Amino acid sequence: MIFRLLTLTAFFWIGLDFQTASAHGSVTPEDDICIIRIGYYKAHFKIYIPQTDGHDEYCEDIPGTGETIFVMEYEHSGLGEVPIDFRVIRNVTDKGVFTSLEDVNSLGNLDAITVVHHSAAVQPDVFTIRYDFDDEGEFVGIVTVENPESGKVYTAVFPFEVGFAGFGWWPWFAAVFVALQLNYLWMNGTFARWKRTGKKRLMAIPGTNHG
Q1: Which of 5, 98, 173, 209 sits 20 to 30 Å CA-CA off 126?
Q2: Higher model confidence: residue 150 or residue 189?
Q3: Using an 8 Å Cβ cutoff, are 162 and 139 in contact?
Q4: pLDDT value at position 19?
């Protein structure tokens, strides 16, 4: 019973962690890279903090402050032909990683909580923007593009943390693996056999009290 409980608990936390990952909005892991979706536009999204972590890439959350470079390498060629507006605001929604576009829109004028804003402009081939984060905290990235033919506006939001040092879902994966192995050993009688073997060995020791 205890092993089943451990298994269910581990699966619950893995599910919660995946839910949290998906709650980060328009940036999602895909084939070992991070993809940002802005309507039907797609780009490979990565963040660098070169002064401390060199060429290490981050998907959203970054472990520390300092010089930060946001990069979008276009997977949709059309992104290099449309103006891209990029903004980072302090997350004052109290929604954390669950902050949505609707939450951002409900804030009204964003100027007072904006930490960096790249006004709409065309950047062929790849989009980059640099900002020095002075403080740790919760932020929201907002990327907006307008289709020049239809005039339709597409917006992507991605909540992220500066000063994040989480472990991801790998510890829970390991916990599930261990729980499943223990449950298997329990169900197939391995533990019972070990117990019987241990008793036999104990009884074979001279002078042991077998009562």
Answers
A1: 98
A2: 150
A3: yes
A4: 43
Q: What is the pLDDT of residues 114-148, one digit of tens each?
A: 999 999 999 998 999 999 999 999 999 999 999 88
Q: Which of 188, 133, 184 is nearest to 162 (CA)?
A: 133
Among 23, 30, 55, which Cα is nearest to 45's? Answer: 30
Name the pTM for this structure. Answer: 0.68
Tokens of 89: 């605001």
- Return d(Cα 145, Cα 129) in angstroms, integer: 16
Select from 3.30.70.2330, 1.10.1670.10, 3.40.50.720, 2.60.40.2550 the CATH code of 31-162. 2.60.40.2550
Q: What is the pLDDT of residue 178?
A: 73
CB 24 within 8 A of CB 60: yes
- Euclidean distance between CA atoms 34 and 72, whole angstroms: 10
